[in-house]
Specification:
This protein is of the alpha+beta class. The protein has a single domain, classed as Outer membrane efflux proteins (OEP). It is built from nine helices and six strands, in the order H-E-H-H-E-H-E-H-H-E-H-E-E-H-H. The strands form two sheets. The chain has a four-stranded antiparallel beta sheet with strand order 2-3-5-6, with no helix packed on it.
């Protein structure tokens, strides 16, 4: 089934090429790949979740209203036994009923929470930034993937272009050899050798074209845009400056993680502060607040309160130590990242220098190989060399031209890789 789908996609790419032609830059491809990244939608989701969490934190400063109700039957109740001397004079205190009923509303209002809610909101804001930055880190990795596909397509196309040009040269030479054969100057074997070589070149073009179409299919899935074999991919103009700024998103992520840990320490300290609150209660029950009045009655009470955990057996201290240790772990991760990045940058610099040298050398090689092939062409027409000798020189020139074009593209690719390693 997968092979069938691949075949259909290749046919579709081939058919589209006759109808549409677009020009894409490397930056275009990057943007399309990033826009089609499924996790990008998580940014808005994370923002909505964070906003809801912050709203929940803010409700901690609003009045807390709780409705309570109960009905009980007690086996015994408080009673007052007066002396007989008083009861004989008509004094009596009615006892409380064994069945009691109460419905009341509790209201609690935070006056000062020690700075806890403010710290919680700040931590939540940093947590959101952390999540968004993690997505940016993944997006940066997508740039490198897009670059790989882009340059591979360009490399294959340039190879096809060079081979086609050499195939044209071979075709013209074949016409001359065929003419010489009709005149009896060369044998049929000489003609067949050139024809076989021409078929081999056409075979190479076909194989490379199929590889190009496969890459275009993969790019289409990655970018969410259908690329055609007729589309043009324009190479970027890249310049490298000696002074550069490290803009890798991982570094900003490490910074946010440290800030979040620092704010966690602040929250721990705020949690130790005393907390002031006001409270009130209003109810209706039997009895009310007056226990000597055994009737249904309304009542209320208001007041202020203080809550302060004076001693926590060093729990806060240990939590701060844990946060500090986590901070050290983040520092180690950052150092490891920078070390790896430095190694990659040095490797990228060496790659740029190597490709620059190869391009300069290729220019001389191509020039010399072209002159050799021209000489061989004349010698073949004069009959002083065989078609095999000519094909050896022609293939060497083709290989030199392909290498030259590949090295030019690899040079641009190496420069882009260097900039990408720096987060640009």
């Amino acid at each position: 089934m997968s092979k069938f789908i691949l075949l259909i996609s290749i046919v579709a790419l081939t058919s589209v090429s006759g109808f549409a032609q677009n020009t894409f830059t490397l930056e275009n491809c990057r943007e399309m790949v990033i826009s089609n990244f499924p996790k990008l939608s998580n940014k808005q989701t994370n923002e909505e979740i964070s906003q809801l969490k912050i709203e929940n934190i803010r409700t901690g400063n609003l009045p807390e209203v709780v409705l309570n109700g109960r009905a009980t039957y007690q086996s015994d109740v408080t009673s007052v036994n007066l002396p007989e001397s008083l009861t004989s004079m008509g004094f009596d205190i009615e006892g409380v009923s064994n069945d009691q009923y109460n419905a009341y509303l509790d209201i609690r209002q935070t006056i000062w929470d020690g700075g806890v809610s403010k710290a919680q909101r700040e931590i939540e804001r940093l947590a959101l930034e952390n999540e968004l930055q993690k997505i940016d880190v993944e997006v940066h990795q997508l740039k490198r993937i897009a670059d790989t596909y882009f340059f591979n397509v360009v490399l294959l196309r340039k190879s096809i272009e060079v081979v086609k040009l050499q195939n044209e040269v071979l075709g013209k030479q074949l016409e001359r050899v065929q003419a010489a054969f009709h005149e009896g100057a060369v044998t049929k074997k000489d003609v067949l050798k050139l024809e076989v070589e021409q078929l081999k070149m056409q075979q190479k073009i076909t194989q490379t074209s199929m590889r190009e179409k496969s890459l275009l299919i993969a790019m289409s899935v990655l970018a969410g845009v259908e690329f055609s074999v007729s589309d043009t991919f324009r190479m970027p103009d890249v310049s490298i400056v000696s002074e550069h700024e490290n803009n890798r998103p991982e570094l900003h992520l490490f910074s946010l993680q440290q800030k979040q840990l620092e704010m966690s320490n602040g929250l721990l300290q705020s949690a130790r502060n005393p907390k002031f609150f006001g409270f009130g209660q209003a109810g209706y029950g039997k009895p009310g607040l007056n226990m000597l009045h055994n009737e249904f009655d309304t009542y209320y009470k208001v007041g202020v309160g203080l809550k302060w955990k004076v001693f926590d057996w060093n729990e806060t201290k240990r939590k701060k130590q844990i946060a500090q240790l986590n901070g050290k772990m983040v520092d180690v991760q950052k150092e490891n990242f920078l070390q790896k990045q430095d190694m990659e940058l040095l490797k990228a610099q060496n790659e740029i220098e190597m490709q620059e040298q190869l391009v300069r050398q290729d220019e001389n090689i191509v020039d010399m190989r072209h002159r050799i092939t021209q000489t061989a062409s004349s010698e073949l027409e004069n009959g002083s060399i065989t078609p095999t000798d000519y094909l050896t020189d022609l293939n060497a020139e083709t290989s030199a031209k392909v290498n030259y074009e590949i090295h030019k593209i690899e040079l641009i690719k190496a420069k882009m890789n260097y900039k990408t390693l720096l987060g640009n």
